[in-house]
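Final report, section 2: Outcomes. Of the targets proposed, Zinc metallopeptidase-like protein is the one most frequently requested by collaborating groups, and we therefore present its record in full.
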Amino acid sequence: MGQITLPGNPPIAVTLRRSAQARRLSLRLSQIDGRVTLTLPRRVPEREAVGFLREKEAWLRGHLAARGDDARIELGAVLPIEGVMREIRPGGGRSVILGETCVEVPGPEERVAARLQGWLRTLARERLAEASDRYAARLGRPYTRLTLRDTRSRWGSCTSQGALMYSWRLILAPRDVLDYVAAHEVSHLAEMNHSKAFWNTVEALYGDWRPQRRWLHDEGGSLHRYRFGD
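The predicted structure is given below as tokens.
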């Protein structure tokens, strides 16, 4: 593992990773955190990797520009809550207040990000528990527990013991997308696979799931752009 910098405006840091299994050079841009990784077969020299990067520079810069910069959570910033963009404003009293176009966060400015993140996680748990309860009752199969994490590789999971796990960032997505993920994971209580029977179960519980799955594929990575100081 090493790192090189592709010069330009701005310069791009690229992590080099050698792999015994790799048969060719491959370039990957993470839509989650914007990291660029170049994988090299074991015997390919670094100068060849640099040449490959220069060939792909226009493609790489175009995709980095399309991804956009990370968004720091602070007063005056905007972020989606249940799919609606809202401005973060100072609030009075003791509770976070959700409005149509804003979210008001009380307390000192340096605690805004942490306070808002905690509130979002609580709201995510409420929404996901309600959806999971509803779909599990419809399916006739209870789950054993529900946990939230800040996962980067998946939006949810279901174990063979019936434990559900979700990314709390689903609260940033449109409500129908969160509902689809809940239906998807609850369906695994009946089908621990992605067979035709599984997708038939998802459709029976939720309806046409394809637009929501497509939204996650196309837009889901952007939910990880919002940085709460973690």
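Residues 2-67 form one domain.
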